[in-house]
Amino acid sequence: MDLHKSLTLGIAKQACLCSRLIAIFKKYILCGLFAAGLTAFTGCDDLFRDTPVDKMSEKDIWKNPMLLDEYVLPWYRNMNSGFSTYVPTTIALVKSASRYYMPWFGDQIVPSKNDYYNAGYGDLLKSNTKEITNWAQVQWSNYYTQIQSVNRLFVNQGEIAEGSQKQRILGEAHFFRAYYYYMLWRQFGGVMLIQEPLDPLNDSRKYPRASYEEMVRAIVDDARAAATVLPLEYDATDEGRITQGAALMLVAKTFQWASSDVFQNQEKTYLGFSDDRSHDMLDSARVAYETLMGLQHYDLIQIAGTDEESIKQEYRNIFLTKNSKESILEVQHSDDGNYDTGFGHKLDRDAAAPHFTGTTAAYTPTQNHVDEYGMRAGLTYDAQHPYVGRDYRFYANILYDGSTYNGHVMDIHYTREGNNEIPGEDLTAYGTSTTAAVTRTGYYMGKFVNEKQQINNDEAYASSQNYIIWRYAEVLLDYAEVMFRLGNTEAARTQVNAIRRRAHMDELPSLTWEQLVNERRVELAFEETSYWDIFRWGIAEEKLNGESNPIKAMKIVVRGNQPTRYTISNMDRFPAMVRVFQKKQYYLPIPWDEIRYHEIEQNPEWTEV
């Protein structure tokens, strides 16, 4: 079955009975998971009318190839929302159902729309305990819902007919159980490892929190099991399914995460290792990345052009090409971009400047990030011409004043007329809406957006770009980091220079930790991994706090015969005034009902609200 079409159908199916069941059974993991098991094979679409819903048994699922494929779809759909964001700004009760673009919580890109800061997003930035607790419960429930579904399939695998479909689905099951535990582990620390389906009406078992050692073993074992049976690639109808490469990447990412200094020598084993296992984890990560690279299946998309314009366009196209040779795992958004009934999204609409009728300005790069782009060889920075001679990737990723996008010269400056500063077109809100937004940072996003995407009044059809979770450039940069920390700086430099050569940037003659970090920040700009890097490096308290790392903006004023004035300053309103990150936020609070039911310890410093 075509994965893209199946995902679109599956979304609609889940909505009918699912929401009612989850509302009833969501109090505990076990109850929520029981509901999830039902929703995996219950729906309101014609597909299910061959067997009435009230008479359907589980065996109908395992014996029917089409229903079996439908059963798997939620595993894909719930692994990441991708570019399908949702930030309700008027109904407080649905704040916790928001779907955020995680890089918004970092320092490279922020929304410029006021309403977002009055919504759940703003509450999370303020470190509002109640909203963090509610949001954490949504994440927790979603991940365990999928794990329960996987466990149910494993118990019934003997009912599935032997053949290629069974092999593929079992491989997917191993991957997704590993993946969802990996997501839980990153956000909550060691959690309850439940590897069998549970019936909360008849099963009163309680589970302890797993140690870091146990979490690593469980995730890696499942991911390796997936890698042994999944193919390297699929034909066009199944493109986007989990592959051997994705499974090996999960193994490598698990060891890399576990190797971080912040998880060593911890008193609580569910928050880290009791001793220092960093070297062991690093060496295991090295082997895993080398195995993945040894497949020789993935590669960087090379850029043939040599001038600034062609390099910019070719680099942008990397992120507009679905499931390319550089792609390891992507969220498969609908090809037709349908937002209402499919799994399209509104990235281009939400990122657009006023010239293109944009009113949300949800993806505005910060000056903090712009400062991360170095200069090309032989050139020095000129504050009076700040956008000349920069890293080629700057021109691909950032729409700045005077740059050209879709035939339009970006007008992101003020013009001095007497005592007045007249805002340019892309600093002037489009239309008559009082909530229409423009950039607060002085920039718009160039990466990911599609110049050819039409933006009109029909919001049902929007954008279709896939959301990249992992790509080969990240493999090389991860491997470089691992080798650097193992003391092999030369091997690390080799990988970093491969990334730089692709972007037509000069190679580094030597490599420092600061240069390695900066290369990740530039190459992986606005990608979710850059947000999680802040956590595993233990620098979230510094980077995610307004006092220690204020969000910076650029203001440009053209003053007739006088030199143009470029002023970099800290943003005096949003998000500067609400950016707070407390140490306890390295781990989210486990839902309190779980704490009481399983009689386990809560993560440090969280109190019930």
Automatic annotation (TrEMBL):
Domain SusD-like N-terminal intervals: 130-253
User: What are the UniProt keywords, alphabetically?
Assistant: Cell outer membrane, Membrane, Signal
A Pfam cross-reference name: SusD-like_3
Listed under GO cellular component are: cell outer membrane
Every copy of the RagB/SusD domain together lies at: 325-606
Q: Which SUPFAM superfamilies match?
A: TPR-like
Q: Where in the cell is it found?
A: Cell outer membrane
The text of the family note is: Belongs to the SusD family.
Q: What is this protein called?
A: SusD family protein
